[in-house]
Amino acid sequence: MKADYVIKNAWVYMTFRQCFEKRDVAVSGERIFEVSPEISYQEGNIIDGRGMYLIPGLVDIHMHIESSMTYPMEFSHFGLKAGTTTVVADAHEIANVFGIEGVRTFLEQKTELDIFYAIPSSVPATSMELETSGCSIGEPETEELLQDSRVLCLGEVMNFKSLVPEDGSDTEILRLIRMCQNMRGRDIRLEGHCPKISGRDLNRFIFTGVDADHTQQTEESVLEKTDLGMFLELQKKSLTNGVVETVCKNHLYENVALVTDDTMPDQLLKGQLNQVIVTAVKAGMPVEKAIYCATYTPARRMHLDDRGMIGPGKLADLVLLRNLEDFQPAAVIKGGKLVYQDQEVKGIDSGTISAKKERTDSGKLPFPPHFYHSVHCIQAEPSMFILKAEKPGSKVLANVMKISTFGTATEAVCREIPVRDGQICWQEAGLCLAAVFERYGKNGNIAYGLVEGGFDKPGAAATTWSHDSHNLLVLGNSPEDMALAQNRVLELQGGYVICAGGRVQAEARLNVGGIISDGPLEELAKDLGKVRDVMAELGYRNNNEIMSMSTLALPVSPSLKLTDYGMLEVRSQRQVPLIEEYL
Questions:
Q1: For the whole prediction, is pTM greater than 0.70?
Q2: Torsion angle of the four alpha carbons 541, 240, 91, 123, in this order, in degrees rounded to the nearest 10
Q3: Cα–Cα distance for residue pair 253/324, rounded to 1 Å
């Protein structure tokens, strides 16, 4: 056996010492052949890495391809361009719409990026009694997916009440956990979703075997969870100065991975896991430690022992960087083959390894026709967004979802709202109205909730990309614009639409299941950027306007959310009335 080429004179990342040293790296086929201070090799098969840094391909073990509103083949191109060579995708968004058929369409797509999968564990996120999803994932579907070697874990277990039932009953999620453990043993990881769970409840959560969490962390939660043996997957919103200082001060790198979770299309054009590394470094994490937490620790967590470091026999998943500041790859090698370069790297175009100029031709997408016709509900009229008082009185005390300016959590608050001529004057109180239309043609549910912190100028937004059940969500303070936005989303068969002044101001079409675009990501990102801009112009204030709105319908994210059955207090899964009291 001999090497095909050698990368010489690069600063190579030494995984177990978390430092860079000058090394040569030889590659044979898809694997690393040798790592040495100097490798003598025939002329012509050399890549000059002088002045550059060579790191392992990035490994993102908690993410959702559907959050980029695209499909695996298109995602692969942009993930590799950012230096990510392996992901573990939880396809629970498309599973909520199409069940295991949706997951299969992802599994069938061939990609250069290595995509492993999680079994969607919470489809729907709560239960069919509390929200209507298109399909569900249960024991038969889980058993089928466990047969696939690309399935590495049980995806984020969300519903604390089902995981730790007060009456000690045997719930479906507990049965799914036992099934995973019995069929695959220790090689199947159990991933969790446990925001703001602490103390005895956290102990009970981990006791079930679910020992990872990717939700937003604080300094206190980092220490408590890691002390109890929980593996933390830190996404951007967790990378505050305080959280990063806690990780670094306590040397928690072995128990921490950097992940993306959700990367919006316009963000994906700028980067993927590499941008999370930049965020971690800006917050105070040494770059060598951030690389460790984006390569080796995530690979080890998922038992991907053939990658995550640069060493003989490991996969030749390699990233050449010109600097450690912007973390933009100069070249990316996947399984020994060049899949991306930003500009000429000496040796690459001279016959050592061929440079790929274009993304892979996707050919015909593997989506059946009915995936393009999946939004079935009535057309809204402005009168549907007028709230009538059911009892006499001059005002009401209403339960309201208060949007935060950062993150996706809401706060449950009560507000007094005047009543005039039998109508609840929510606009006069400075509130917005949210409405969820069941869109699968199952029951025709329509539920309403009041929102504080939405738009402060007249307008409305509507979308079918509403976590996790993806019913049709409308938010606004103008009944006419709300009806117009809802109608246009129906016409598009999914997407985002923003209306103001009786006109569509911005829209982004998601024509596959109402959550995915089958077009180029660049076009989608441009359209979605316009949606984001118009939302901000109308007064929506959040670090991620689109995700903030979409998660108003996510009943496992604190603390008060809306489904097609009505408002839910997330922790207790207790239904909350819109009107608390007539005054």
A1: yes
A2: -80
A3: 19
